[in-house]
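SAMPLE LOG
Freezer: B-3
Tube label: C17
Construct: single chain, 200 aa
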Amino acid sequence: MFKILEPYILSFIPIFVAVDAIGNIPLFISLVEGLNNKQRQKIIRDSVTTATLVAIIFMFFGKWLLRFIGISIADFQIAGGALLFVISMRLLLPGAQKSFLVDSSDKDVGVFPLGTPLITGPAVLTTTLMMLDNFGIQPTFISLVLNMLFVWITLVKADLIMRLIGASGTRAFSKIMYILLAAIGVMMIRKGITGLFLLR
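STRUCTURE (predicted):
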């Protein structure tokens, strides 16, 4: 039973770490402050739809794009791993946060910056492509959809989650996710370097 579920679990976890649904809650609350329930629901719907579509399109066409411009999977693993590591390190630094991407004056905050790049950004796109290469299309697709469903739940229940764990709790959770993201980045670089040697 575990052998059947193993690729789904192993693909779900890195995408979950990259999405960082809990860490996005404080930013979401700041973006929807002063809006009524109908407006909030529209932003949630727009953000999850945008994030899901961007990730799925990249999952299906990302490899084709890489081949078209002559980039091997090993090249992408090294570059993607380095990118994940840099993103995680930047967000782990004292005082670092994702809010530099936020412009609350934008009427389409559900699409940008919430849908992309806050929910589906470079880390999610890179991780999704790596999971596709490691575990195949079905586990990756299901893991991605489940993660986006989790994002939708966390945004709908954002106020309740903030009351339960508080701002400090969400920050602590995010820091743990960034450490795991850095470790995934190192793993991808290691696999990419190994892949380059095997290609020779």
